[in-house]
Model the fold of this input.
Amino acid sequence: MIQNIYPEVFYNQFRNDGRAAARDEDTVFAFCGRTILVRTDERGMLVFPSVREAKDVGLSDHLQYLFSICRDPEGEEHRFFLYTDYGADKESIILKLPFYSFEGMMNLRFLNPKDLCFAGMTAYHLYVWYRDNVFCGRCGEKTHTSEKERALVCPRCGNTIYPKICPAVIVGVTKGDQILMTRYAGRSGAGNALIAGFCEIGETAEETVQREVMEEVGLHVTDIRYYKTQPWGFESDLLLGYYCQAAPGEDIVMDENELSRAVFVPRNEIGQEDNDVSLTAEMIQYFRDHPEKF
Ligand SMILES: [Zn+2]
Done:
């Protein structure tokens, strides 16, 4: 999955010391809407602007430390910074850094190296939160960053705003040696999906599983089992993977607003998923490759 960057290790602890200082070789993430400033090198590998490049063209006055990635906690680390001039327009930045362009966030998913892809996605999640909380939602005052934790603080009313993470479930509904595969309506080129949806306020994740399966395909489920989680910064999500069994004797009633396809697919007809990025793909493969677990 996208977060599996071993042997690299992700460190997102809050820092407010020298280790949060930008060095020339560190990386700058600049976003505009759902796009990110990036280029690929001659080998097709992701390259983001360095702090040095940003400095050289006068773009280093607005940098916020995000996190670091390194192999050895005592060793050399790679620090990542957010460009926080959210009002800057794309053209003026491209004019200053002509080898780069703003590319759609989702294009990042299948590019290498994996640790940079994961870093870009995670930086995007933080960018959305920082950008959307420049002003206090309670009183409208401009917020500032806390000096003791990852939070934005309102100097007028004291409102403290922590990063927002939206939990959502991914559900593998099984029936004997079959798993329910879906396709989203209105998304051309979309691959196989599983039932998925956001947790509502006041709901347990297991209740979300029951509700989403009922809403999307009209089935009751039993034996809800936790599998794994995945941070999915593209949508500010934390994905919670569950398997469950379809109750016997019920027919699929598909929500056609949401889905264009919902069928139980036998294990021996499941192909090799062509990505090792998403929890959905891993759960489909896990069902295919581990009949003894179901
Ligand atoms: Zn306020």
